[in-house]
Write a structure and sequence with these properties.
The complex is a heterodimer of chains A (about 300) and B (about 350). Chain A contains 10 helices and no strands. Chain A is mainly alpha-helical and about 300 residues long. Chain A has one domain: MetI-like fold. Chain B is globular. The chains are: A mainly alpha (about 300), B mainly alpha (about 350).
Chain lengths: ~300, ~350
């Protein structure tokens, strides 16, 4: 029995280091995007459209070493767009997930601690949102905001942040509420209350530290969810994509890459596979990290 | 029991009405109208549209000239038409006329079968059958994989499985679906690019694409909850009593690990239903999910609300059934839920 635990911990440590390495690389690429990208991601180049990646060297089409991962139908460099897209994803993660976590935690704490009517109302709200098709709510919100905002980079980002918060906070609120209910019935809370702790003190001083691991694991588990949501919306074509360069929000994002990949799927499926691999590596590292953390909290 | 069910039904219908209200407000906040929809109709952006008189007539026909609250009550409960007849709304099962598909009501589009076909050929029937196949795959693969990786939790097999499951969860399912089309249909020619939905073997690929992510989730939950039980003292007792491995696994571990697993079926079904929106679009599958996209992008208000209603009723009933099963399985859950709000 002991041997099993120590082995799984060793495995956990290795995956944790791997995940951290991926995250640091991701953050570094995102932060240094303007310096390391070989081309301008917005620059059209009509002489080099639809190039395949450099390793494709057949008689009909062959990649050029100038555009390592090839170009899209407007001749924009895929590698640069990938790097700038990492920047968008990074900002999304840094903004959307912590804000959603904050909202969910506060609602869950209040609802679980005070109980009664407050609890009922909050639970009705969360259950209502959960019984809506989330992706459709997001699409509707984007259609609303798209008309209200000017199509700039910041506004596009802000829209997606709001959309993610609107659908994601409910699951954390319910999770935190269950955690609070469990902790609240323990003796040390009763002791704190009988010693004269105010509700706020007992919530933030005594209950929150005991459920913080729930929040942490939720945050790590939901980082892939943001990336996947952005990718899906981009693929559908209602996201932040600048693929058409028209009236959309002009954000270079991985979703936008999927959108351009959709049209060249027969001639150049790599355009779809490359962003998919990026999404895959990043979400996988976060999921493995969450697993390792979970195991640690369980042991 | 009846009191319990009555309470649940009341609570559930409240949730459904709330869900419809939220969706109603959202879709009416989207700028444009079904006839001048700026989001999908490029002509509308240039104001080359249906002329104003016709628009006014159409608005009056579908009640879009009424104030918002009256549109909502008209949809949900009832309203008088021009002749003064009372027309009952969604509570009577009348989901209203569809705006984009002329001359058909929403309930007819969603539940009505084409002429000469059975109920299973309707939009709802198609979607439900696809969901059923997907659930079969989820249970058939997820449960054994989870059990194996829990029972051999430190072996290489288990580590390989857990990395593989993390991999499955991280692939966006539209990419999986597209790659399946590229590889299976255009490279290997195993399936036709244009499937014939009367042939059950053509359902396999969409069902698998739909099922793989929830399957990975289920396997992970099975693994975690079984590992939690394996640690308990009564498993050690059972082992030291000399019970067979099979008996311990089935009777002691699996049965005690069942409550979290069954609770997880709610999220699984939700995930499958959300996946429908993607997969049906990819494979041009004639189901509800594709219709929902069309409805949102074309601002077909009654259609959106009708499909939201169907979806929300599904979600709420899944939750209720889930709760009832868990309470009948585990007396502790019953004790907790009777002490608190629903």
């Amino acid at each position: 029995m002991k041997r099993q635990i120590s082995l799984s911990k060793g495995m956990g440590r290795k995956t944790v280091w791997l995940s951290f390495a991926v995250m640091i690389m991701f953050a570094a690429v995102a932060l240094t995007a303007p310096w390391i990208s070989p081309h301008d991601p917005y620059q059209f180049d009509m002489k080099h459209t639809d190039l395949p990646p450099v390793w494709v060297q057949s008689t009909v089409i062959h990649g050029s070493s100038e555009y390592i991962l090839g170009t899209d139908i407007y001749g924009r460099d895929i590698l640069s767009r990938l790097i700038y897209g990492a920047r968008t994803s990074f900002l999304l993660i840094m903004l959307a997930v912590p804000l959603a976590a904050l909202l969910g935690t506060i609602v869950g704490l209040v609802s679980g601690y005070f109980g009664g009517w407050v609890d009922r109302i909050f639970m009705a709200i969360t259950e209502t949102i959960q019984s809506l098709p989330g992706i459709m709510v997001v699409v509707a919100l984007i259609l609303i905001f798209r008309a209200a905002f000017t199509p700039t980079w910041a506004h596009g980002l802000l829209t997606l942040v709001i959309c993610f918060i609107a659908i994601a906070w409910v699951s954390l609120a319910r999770l935190v509420r269950m955690g609070v209910l469990q902790v609240k019935s323990m003796l040390f809370i009763e002791a704190a209350v009988s010693l004269g702790a105010t509700p706020w003190r007992s919530i933030f001083r005594h209950i929150l530290p005991n459920i913080s691991h729930l929040v942490l694991v939720w945050i790590i588990n939901n980082i892939p969810a943001v990336i996947l949501l952005e990718a899906l919306l981009g693929y559908i074509g209602v996201g932040l994509t600048s693929a058409t360069g028209g009236g959309e929000f002009t954000v270079v994002s991985w979703g936008g890459l999927f959108y351009s990949g959709r049209y060249t799927i027969a001639s150049n499926p790599m355009l779809l596979v490359i962003p998919a691999l990026c999404v895959l590596i990043i979400s996988m590292s976060f999921i493995l990290l969450a697993d390792a953390l979970n195991e640690r909290f369980r042991a | 029991m009846f009191q319990f069910l009555g309470k649940k039904v009341l609570w559930g219908s409240m949730i459904v009405v709330g869900a419809i209200l939220i969706m109603f407000l959202l879709v009416h906040a989207i700028p444009g109208s079904p006839w001048a929809n700026y989001s999908t109709n490029p002509r509308a952006q240039q104001n080359r549209d249906i002329d104003a008189t016709v628009q006014r007539l159409l608005n009056a026909r579908f009640g879009l000239d009424l104030p918002l609250w009256r549109q909502f009550t008209r949809y949900l409960i009832a309203d008088f038409d021009n002749q003064g007849n009372l027309i009952c709304g969604a509570i009577c099962g009348n989901l209203g006329p569809s705006i984009q598909q002329h001359g058909r009501t929403v309930q007819d589009i969603v539940f009505g079968a084409p002429i000469g076909e059975t109920f299973w050929q309707s939009l709802f029937g198609y979607s439900i059958r696809l969901v059923f196949f997907a659930v079969l795959i989820v249970i058939g693969l997820g449960l054994p994989i989870g059990i194996v990786s829990a029972l051999r939790s430190s072996s290489r097999v288990a580590h390989a499985i857990s990395v593989f499951l993390a991999l499955l969860i991280s692939i966006p399912n539209f990419v999986l679906g597209l790659l399946a089309i590229i590889i299976l249909a255009s490279w290997l020619h195993w399936i036709p690019v244009l499937p014939n939905w009367d042939d059950p073997s053509h359902w396999l690929v969409p069902a698998f694409v739909l099922a793989l992510v929830p399957m990975a989730g289920l396997a992970r939950v099975v693994r975690t909850s079984m590992l939690n039980v394996i640690k308990e003292d009564y498993i050690r007792t059972a082992r030291s009593k000399g019970l067979t491995k099979q008996r311990i696994t089935l009777d002691h571990i699996l049965r005690n690990a069942l409550v979290p697993i069954i609770t997880y079926f709610g999220p699984i079904l939700m995930e499958i239903f959300v996946g429908l929106f993607v997969v049906e679009g990819l494979y041009s599958f004639p189901g509800m999910g594709r219709e929902y996209w069309q409805a949102v992008l074309n601002l077909d208000y009654p259609m959106i609300l009708g499909l939201t209603l169907v979806y929300a009723v599904g979600m709420v009933s899944i939750n209720v059934v889930n709760q009832v099963i868990c309470e009948s399985l585990d007396p502790r859950v019953r004790a907790v839920s009777q002490g608190e709000a629903p």
